[in-house]
Amino acid sequence: MAKRSVPLLKQLLSSSAAVSSSCSSRFTSHRSVTYMPRPGDGSPRAVTLIPGDGIGPLVTGAVEQVMEAMHAPVYFERYDVHGDMPKVPQEVIDSIKKNKVCLKGGLATPMGGGVSSLNVQLRKQLDLYASLVNCFNLPGLPTRHENVDIVVIRENTEGEYAGLEHEVVPGVVESLKVITKFCSERIAKYAFEYAYLNNRRKVTAVHKANIMKLADGLFLESCREVATKYPGIKYNEIIVDNCCMQLVSKPEQFDVMVTPNLYGNLVANTAAGIAGGTGVMPGGNVGADHAVFEQGASAGNVGNEKVTEQKKANPVALLLSSAMMLRHLQFPSFADRLETAVKHVIFEGKHRTKDLGGNSTTQEVVDAVIATLD
User: Can you name one GO molecular function term for this protein (predicted)?
Assistant: First the structure.
């Protein structure tokens, strides 16, 4: 008798779960955003805009159009900055310090010649110590791997990017890699805090401490100390070369990754390539007081001349980055609307740029996103 009742019990439980799920789905689909703004939070916010080089003006222009179509409570203060400038103009720095938030296209970095990257200058001057890139599968966009949802959090102010190089004697150049406990601890704290606040379950520290025992060893030591304060989050470590191999073979094993500066750039671009390409990966740089949002993965971030001339740059990465910006500004419903519209256009597959297997122009993608906004 007991054995015959088991299938019935399972059926009843299954039916109950289905009803519960249906009710839950019906309820949540009509539930409003549980966000209580402070009085005055709905006032339009000023955002510093740097169109940048190459495809930058195209994709930042796309964001401007979508923001206007949504009637998003932001307005832009535009500044023309280019990668061949000796430094970021002071008026631009002052604007970002005043507005606290900036949206930027890519700035070209000259190869060699002793000219420093304005991207790096900006991060240092504003102490944007954390770079975040979210690499994830977009529904409808075919990739070799599924279930990829990786957040790469990279220390942004020191390491090999410190730019401390000099020629010791003719033909011999010394480049210094600087790692400090202060910077290592704060990026580790940011990574664990991000994981905790975003319901992430694991943080992986990427390193090369088997060779750079002091520098990367200090980074690892800092990560380990911070990890003890977050017992609910799993912590592990991986050597950077093994990390790259694991990324291309089994990327779904990674959740949040915390890295020194150079490794983070390599890992983020590798993860972006796996999840759908640099054209669809959002990102931002954040410090205690300021934030700059831009295309997440930097490879080819200014595009090639042909793409610019044909006006076929992919605006998806910067549109998703601007959704991150809206959430940062505490306009979550606008961020949700924008993300939903972009993902719908990708899923539908009718309007895609060449890097995603289509032949659409930037404007055609923008028009499709605007038409999809609910």
Answer: metal ion binding
* Residue 351 phi, psi (nearest 5): -125, 95
Task: Cite the beta strand spans of the chain per DSSP E.
Answer: 45-50, 74-78, 101-104, 130-136, 149-155, 159-169, 172-178, 202-207, 234-239, 256-259, 282-286, 291-295
Helix 56-70 to helix 316-328 angle (10° resolution) is 50
Q: Residues with Cβ < 8 Å from 59, sequence gap 6 or more?
A: 105, 295, 313, 314, 315, 317, 318, 319, 362
Distances from the Cα of 23 to the Cα of 10, 30, 32, 34, 110, angstroms = 20, 11, 16, 19, 57
Torsion of CA 154, 159, 164, 168, to 10 degrees: -140
- What is the spatial distance between Cα 132 and Cα 314, in angstroms, rounded to a whole number? 20
361: CB partners within 8 A, 6+ apart? 310, 311, 312, 353
DSSP 296: S
Task: Look up residue 154 and give its two tokens.
Answer: 């990279």
What tokens were used for 354?
């060449």
Structure confidence by residue, pLDDT tens digits, 196-226: 999 999 999 999 999 999 999 999 999 999 9
Q: How far apart are CA 33 and CA 35, in angstroms?
A: 6
Q: Which two tokens stand for residue 294?
A: 């831009």
How many Cβ atoms are within 10 Å of 166's Cβ, its own excluded?
9
**Phi, psi at 297, each rounded to 5°:** -95, 135
